[in-house]
Amino acid sequence: MPAHDDVKAGKADFLMAFGETARARRAALGLTQRQLDARMGYRGKFSGGVERGARNLTLDNLYLLAAALDTDPRDLLSD
């Protein structure tokens, strides 16, 4: 089993990469973070936290994010 610090580092890397994928998809659609948040039904800075790798999503929010980005949730995870 990997050391705890290695797992934490891997998690941080994964969240950053996921955020970069979400940011690229949002930019390709020409959406601002505020517009994306509105599409998801949020009035805050939700997508900014995702894009920075600071927010850990639930599966529910992954689905909402993918729908707001007009993509399949698996596509956000595969890049």
From TrEMBL:
<feature type="domain" description="HTH cro/C1-type">
    <location>
        <begin position="23"/>
        <end position="76"/>
    </location>
</feature>
<dbReference type="GO" id="GO:0003677">
    <property type="term" value="F:DNA binding"/>
</dbReference>
<protein>
    <submittedName>
        <fullName>Transcriptional regulator with XRE-family HTH domain</fullName>
    </submittedName>
</protein>
<dbReference type="InterPro" id="IPR010982">
    <property type="entry name" value="Lambda_DNA-bd_dom_sf"/>
</dbReference>
<dbReference type="Pfam" id="PF01381">
    <property type="entry name" value="HTH_3"/>
</dbReference>
<dbReference type="InterPro" id="IPR001387">
    <property type="entry name" value="Cro/C1-type_HTH"/>
</dbReference>
